[in-house]
Amino acid sequence: MKEIREKILELVNAYERQLMFYEQIREVGSQEKDLIAKGDLESLLKVLRQKGVYLKNATGQETEIKSLQALLTRHFQLDEFSIPQLKSKASDRYQGDFEQLESVINKLVPMLEELENQERRNEQSLSRYIDATKVQTPGRPQIKLARTAYEKKK
Q: What is the per-residue burial (b if ≥16 Cβ within 10 Å, else e) of 86-122?
């Protein structure tokens, strides 16, 4: 069925777009560390805003992903979305497509773990920086803005 194959490929593409946004988040996240170390809070705020845009774009893919997953789950008469179950229920003509889907999902999992670790390290660095600067210059507005930006993401 050509339509189902197209839906599988749409799902692959949605995951690939999501992965691209997560890669962009990783790149700006690595800039955060350097900016915190330099105490360049104005640039840090710009980077955090950009990261917020990428995050919004990445999570924006979720609606399309969930819709396509639901369609495939119904079509293959599954209780829940599962690549192994899809592969076992689908005919041979879909196997390559599901392999491609599985491949992109397998890239997403370590990326999300890496982003979580990066975020934790950046939060710790910012917290240490804030603690160190409290003694020197209490109440700098940029520090408060940076802390607020991190707290919103939690």
A: bbeebeeebeebbebbeebeeeeeebeeebeebbeeb
